[in-house]
Amino acid sequence: xxxxxxxxxxxxxxxxxxxxxxxxxxxxxxxxxxxxxxxxxxxxxxxxxxxxxxxxxxxxxxxxxxxxxxxxxxxxxxxxxxxxxxxxxxxxxxxxxxxxxxxxxxxxxxxxxxxxxxxxxxxxxxxxxxxxxxxxxxxxxxxxxxxxxxxxxxxxxxxxxxxxxxxxxxxxxxxxxxxxxxxxxxxxxxxxxxxxxxxxxxxxxxxxxxxxxxxxxxxxxxxxxxxxxxxxxxxxxxxxxxxxxxxxxxxxxxxxxxxxxxxxxxxxxxxxxxxxxxxxxxxxxxxxxxxxxxxxxxxxxxxxxxxxxxxxxxxxxxxxxxxxxxxxxxxxxxxxxxxxxxxxxxxxxxxxxxxxxxxxxxxxxxxxxxxxxxxxxxxxxxxxxxxxxxxxxxx
Length: 395
Known about the structure:
The chain is of the alpha/beta class. The chain is 35% helix and 12% strand. The strands form 3 sheets. A 4-stranded parallel sheet has the order 7-8-9-10. The protein has a 3-stranded parallel sheet with strand order 1-5-6. A 3-stranded antiparallel sheet has the order 2-3-4, with no helix packed on it. β3 and β4 (51-52) form a beta hairpin.
């Protein structure tokens, strides 16, 4: 496709966390219960809840994989049956742009990116690891958000929008954390697409217990983003005899097939079926780095359910999804089909830069938008995310 005549808004950019991201501001009383570093067998190792954490193979991120080196693998092409280590190829020293915001802006200028939503890399695996200790989990996330505000900012120069992480594990603390980040100009918050851990049992995100959080998010007009990570769904692989800790870039075909699309499917099904959008009609949500293949099946089943038991819903659940949810499809998916299903106004371009599984050149996402009109291309590549970066308070 021809070169773009506008700067893009990348709805899925990442940094690689500084080693002190969870430790610089941690409450000293929580240090050993939350996240810390230790030398294990001569190697700097991440300890979470007092245990070695293997969510990321090398959580120091130095060296690190080249951006986009796994793109063909995630397109389903590995004709030589290479191992993951072989596919990663030669690692390289970490770039300053992965850890310094002003250097990142210079890279974005070169890439034709005006603005980006910035999501964690390591951080999206920590809620599951700390689910057994809600106090430590909340302390770790607050420490992380304080680091994020300091090193990247929540709206740095109106170009870099860091997404603070919030867990609903303690409803009162979730609201307090939301207030803290809103006071520092957060435009979006990042939640886990999973049931909420609780001392007695897991609960739905739609449980009225969490209504004060949803009410404040709606009132502030902040975007609620659900991003891929450790959703705790490895337990379903356990049921099929393939247990073990969740590790990025590791696992078996069955583990991937069993859990790949379940987290976003279940999350948005629960939000709709448990009435969150009925009670809070001003909420705006986004699904990021979880693909879009699950959307078609979810809407099909919601439509069938509505036909079977319309009285269980306050409105057509398919229309509720389309009104409240923006989706960032993986670039290798059927983008035209998704636009026709949910509307091009609800699609977000996301490159996953600089991750190995993403796109090395973020603007190349446009090459997947075959059959899209110039107006539609601009919506996906810029305008849709631009409107989400603006807080839209609802009274």
